[in-house]
């Protein structure tokens, strides 16, 4: 027997066997197609489970899960501290976590124009860490590397810019399938395009995943249970994903209706969270089920280059969040004020989400103050389209659009054995919908079918645990 203790938000998925038939878990795969991640403990097979977060698990010598007991439960116990006192506590917890995670290491820091990595940059600079930073933008996309370069310059961090180019996916797709075991779709992890370069930048990553969830309100209103279910479904079900899941559900002759099944699963999981405050409850749901099964799934790609650390994933940070009043978390207050307190120069750099405004001026990102930038940006995009350089905002645009991409896409959708799992007519329907109706809406469906195709051909019905 062995005991496996999982973190509050695990940075890697761990699996075990249970006493069930070794058959495909079609219901779980439908949820995967709809949302982009497996829910709770679900896996491709019925006799496989992913160990739940924050549990102590006893596993026998044959890999069978004997028992699983929680050692931590998300809660909402707001302290009576003042905002200033909470801010001071955050500064202490955050910097202590980063200091511990990066001791005597050369740190690799992915930078963006947002708040999470900028907050890390502030701490790493304050702690005098040895840091090499990098960022990437999409070919013909918004030059986010300029914002990241500006942050690196203020902190005196060496900086490496990357451009994510067309077609890179097809040169790496088999390696990617092996790395993430097809537990997440393939068009999100841009880092796969520059994996070899990342291996040479330092000793350990400091990754900013999940800061945006922990340090912001999830809803402004107190909701009923049904309203909470509606909000969660709105957040997790991807455009086109519900349509794909319904067609697969019907094709596989599963009992009942997919929408009822998914709603029931989500409602049951929400009911098990003993938190009254809706914002804190939904944050807990996302941290228990979304982060470990979606965000964590592609962390394996970073690990293929170097060991990873995640300050926002740390047990200390999760426990701290449970004590912070929701009013202090709303609108990213703590991160913004931390940056202003520690490094005012970084606060003056454009906040990507509110461009062209920064942390001092972002409240002006509303009518009529943002009209000049919106007009300028629209003119720029129109100009690029006229000269044949479409403005790229998402990775799938570089990997799915154009003749060369289409050749590879068709190969993996129609000549790779996907028909063993998915009727050709269903695949053709979504391929045609992407090509002729709405590429934005149906990009998710193609990406999920592509992932399923690679799982079928790579693992061929074998367990990957």
Shape: globular
Portion of residues in beta strands equals 5-15%
Helix content class: 40-55%
Low-confidence stretches: none
CATH superfamily of the largest domain: HUPs
What is the distance, rounded to the nearest whole angstrom, between the alpha carbons of the first and last residues? Answer: 18 Å
Architecture (CATH level 2) name of the largest domain = 3-Layer(aba) Sandwich
Tell me the structural class. alpha/beta
- The number of domains is 3
Would you write up a description of this structure?
By secondary structure, the protein is an alpha/beta fold. It folds into 3 domains: 1-73 and 225-274, no CATH class; 83-215 and 292-360, Rossmann fold, CATH 3.40.50; 371-459, no CATH class. It has 21 helices and 10 strands. The strands form 3 sheets. The protein has a 5-stranded parallel β-sheet with strand order 8-7-6-9-10. Strands 1-4-5 form a 3-stranded antiparallel β-sheet, with no helix packed on it. It has a two-stranded antiparallel ribbon with strand order 2-3. The longest helix is centred in the C-terminal third of the chain and has 21 residues, at 439-459. The chain is globular. The protein starts with a strand and ends in a 6-residue tail after the last helix.
SSE inventory with pairings:
Blueprint: E1 2-5, E2 15-17, H1 26-35, E3 48-50, E4 55-59, E5 65-70, H2 83-101, E6 107-110, H3 116-126, E7 131-138, H4 144-155, E8 159-164, H5 168-180, H6 195-198, E9 204-206, H7 211-214, H8 225-236, H9 241-251, H10 258-271, H11 278-295, H12 299-303, E10 308-309, H13 315-321, H14 326-329, H15 333-342, H16 344-347, H17 371-386, H18 395-400, H19 403-414, H20 424-436, H21 439-459
Parallel strand pairs: 6-7, 6-9, 7-8, 9-10
Antiparallel strand pairs: 1-4, 2-3, 4-5
Helix pairs in contact: 1-9, 3-15, 5-21, 8-10, 20-21
């Amino acid at each position: 027997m062995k005991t496996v203790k999982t973190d509050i938000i695990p940075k890697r998925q761990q699996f075990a066997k249970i006493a069930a038939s070794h058959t495909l878990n079609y219901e779980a795969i439908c949820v995967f197609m709809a949302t982009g991640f497996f829910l709770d403990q679900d896996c491709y097979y019925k006799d496989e489970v992913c160990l739940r977060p924050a549990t102590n698990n006893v596993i026998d010598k044959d890999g069978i899960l004997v028992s699983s007991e929680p050692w931590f439960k998300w809660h909402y116990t707001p302290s009576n501290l003042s905002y200033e006192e909470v801010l001071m506590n955050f500064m202490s917890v955050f910097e202590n976590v980063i200091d511990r995670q990066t001791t005597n290491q050369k740190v690799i820091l992915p930078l963006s124009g947002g708040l999470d990595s900028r907050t890390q940059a502030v701490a790493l600079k304050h702690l005098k860490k040895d840091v090499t930073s990098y960022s990437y933008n999409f070919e013909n996309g918004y030059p986010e590397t300029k914002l990241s370069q500006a942050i690196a310059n203020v902190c005196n961090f060496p900086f490496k810019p990357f451009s994510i180019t067309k077609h890179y996916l097809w040169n790496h797709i088999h390696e990617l399938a092996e790395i993430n075991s097809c537990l997440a779709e393939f068009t999100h992890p841009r880092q796969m395009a520059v994996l070899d370069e990342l291996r040479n930048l330092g000793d350990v990553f400091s990754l900013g995943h999940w800061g945006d969830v922990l340090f912001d309100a999830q809803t402004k209103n107190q909701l009923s249970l049904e309203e909470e279910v509606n909000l969660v479904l709105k957040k997790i079900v991807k455009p086109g994903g519900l349509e794909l899941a319904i067609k697969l559900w019907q094709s596989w002759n599963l009992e009942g209706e997919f929408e009822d099944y998914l709603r029931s699963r989500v409602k049951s999981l929400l009911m098990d969270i003993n938190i009254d405050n809706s914002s804190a409850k939904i944050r807990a749901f996302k941290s228990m089920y979304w982060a470990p099964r979606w965000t964590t799934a592609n962390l394996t790609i970073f690990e293929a280059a170097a060991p990873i650390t995640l300050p926002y994933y740390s047990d200390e940070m999760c426990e701290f969040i449970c004590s912070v009043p929701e009013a202090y978390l709303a609108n990213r207050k703590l991160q913004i004020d931390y940056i202003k307190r520690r490094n005012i120069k970084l606060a003056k750099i454009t906040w990507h989400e509110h461009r062209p405004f920064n942390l001092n001026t972002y409240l002006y990102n509303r009518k009529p103050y943002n009209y000049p930038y919106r007009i300028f940006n629209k003119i720029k995009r129109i100009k690029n389209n006229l000269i044949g350089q479409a403005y790229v905002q998402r990775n799938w645009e570089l990997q799915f659009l154009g003749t060369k991409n289409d050749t590879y896409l068709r190969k993996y959708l129609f000549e790779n054995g996907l028909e063993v799992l998915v009727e050709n007519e269903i695949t053709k329907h979504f391929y045609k919908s992407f090509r002729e109706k709405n590429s934005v809406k149906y990009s998710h469906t193609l990406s999920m079918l592509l992932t399923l195709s690679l799982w079928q051909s790579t693992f061929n019905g074998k367990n990957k645990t």
